[in-house]
Design a protein that fits this description.
Blueprint (H helix, E strand, L loop, with lengths): L3 E5 L5 H8 L5 E4 L2 H9 L3 E4 L14 E6 L13 H17 L5 H7 L10 H10 L6 E6 L4 H13 L3 E8 L10 E8 L11 E2 L13 E2 L3 H5 L10 E3 L16 E3 H7 L33 E4 L8 E3 L17 E4 L10 E2 L2 H7 L12 H10 L3 H8 L17
Length: 403
């Protein structure tokens, strides 16, 4: 096989699904068993392996594009962030690997979190591929705190003849129903590296003589299809298990919202004819998202005091799960005596808010599915990043988020 697109730390297929939509395929390297099974169920080619141990040699002379999203747990706000303490060691590893020196074993012994050094692994592959004038382009993604490391990569790649760009992008600016901010590295040997033009903005823009304006950020309600009369009713998943816990319904069944209403456990989200159409601003006097029948359904990211809380009429905050898979809940801001019980977000809903299709074949237990979703690259953001490098045009209709 030639003209490969190699996807390091491929996860459950965020980049891979984007490539599929664009009519291209990747070869993913991934260690997690259930992420590999999800990719397999989605028809994506995967090598189950430790990226830090797999040799770069099989890809030399055969690779067009290199994609990398190293694990973020060492750097993320959701973890202990020991990657920030280890950052000088990671920078040293990148510098050494770029010079053809492998000092990973010594540096790893000094790391507070062994996952920190995984952010240096793409340079090992890049150095090996550079000897044959490849790859043609590079795309890398991580949490914002990794931005300084991407600048180091960019400096090395510019010395090898690449045009580069690094910066922070907000997934909501590209139609993802989530304000997920990520550090991005773009590099190319054949074109000027630049971020894709945003397609959405917080308040939207009117069309002009020069072309269509940017759309309003996609809300959770719009993405999930809530408030539609022509689509299926969202569901509440019952049953416990890892990352699950008690549900409002007996285990082993899946209930629609209509059944939930009959049991008194769920009240319909306030998306009704009184509510502005998804993507438009509220028409009430105080110009706020508070509308409907006196209760405002919101998504609360976890049980911490500083948890992000977003109304359905806005995009979600950054979704992360890990040990908090059972704490991301739909709840209300109305009077406590009238409020129904909180309902945990389902894996399907979380996947849609990451811009995966509703029927994406997540594999594993509930907790394993949530972990995959929280760690994935939003496919819609990935597609915008990839499209120029594979000579594809991404249309507004290529991704359909609503169920």
């Amino acid at each position: 096989m030639t003209n490969l697109i190699v996807d390091l730390f491929a996860g459950p297929g965020g980049w891979g699904h984007a490539l599929h939509v664009l009519g291209v395929r990747d070869v993913g390297l991934e260690w997690d068993e259930w992420a590999c099974k999800t990719r397999a169920a989605a028809g994506q080619t995967t090598i189950r392996t430790d990226v830090a141990l797999y040799p770069a040699r099989p890809f030399v002379g055969r690779t067009r594009g290199l994609i990398a999203s190293p694990p973020c747990q060492a750097w993320s706000m959701a973890g202990k962030r020991l990657g920030l303490i280890d950052q000088p060691l990671v920078h040293q590893a990148v510098a050494d690997l770029a010079a053809g020196q492998d000092t990973r074993e010594q540096l790893l012994a000094a790391c507070r979190d062994p996952r920190s050094l995984l952010a240096a692994e793409p340079m090992r592959y890049l150095h090996a591929l550079h000897q044959s004038g490849q790859p043609e382009w590079v795309l890398m993604e991580e949490v914002p705190d990794v931005a300084p490391l991407w600048k180091q990569y960019a400096a090395v790649l510019r010395g090898w003849g690449f045009s580069t760009w690094t910066g922070i992008l907000n997934a909501a600016d590209y139609g993802v129903p989530q304000t997920r901010r990520r550090a991005i590295l773009i590099a190319s040997r054949t074109r000027t590296a630049a971020p894709p033009e945003p397609t959405h903005t917080r308040f939207g823009e009117p069309d002009t003589f020069f072309g269509p304006g940017r759309r309003t950020w996609v809300s959770m309600a719009e993405a999930l299809g809530w408030g539609r009369t022509d689509g299926p009713v969202p569901t509440v998943c019952a049953g416990g298990g890892p990352g699950g816990g008690p549900e409002p319904f007996p285990s082993g069944s899946r209930k629609t919202l209509s059944d939930a209403r009959d049991r008194g456990a769920w009240q319909e989200p306030p998306i009704s004819p009184q509510i502005p159409a998804a993507g438009s601003r509220c028409g009430c006097a105080e110009k706020s998202p508070r509308c409907g029948r006196g209760q405002d359904w919101v998504l609360r990211s976890n049980s911490q005091a500083n948890a992000s809380v977003r109304p359905l009429t806005e995009p979600a905050a950054t979704l992360f799960f890990g040990n908090r898979a059972n704490e991301c809940v739909w709840t209300t801001t109305g009077p406590a005596q009238a409020a129904p019980p909180s309902i945990r977000i389902t894996a399907e809903e979380a996947g849609i808010l990451q811009s995966f299709p509703p029927a994406y074949p997540w594999q594993g237990t509930k907790g394993q599915r949530f972990s995959q979703i929280g760690n994935a690259v939003p496919p819609l953001l990935a597609a915008h990043l990839i499209a120029p490098h594979v000579e594809r045009v991404l249309s507004r209709d290529d991704f359909v988020l609503a169920a």
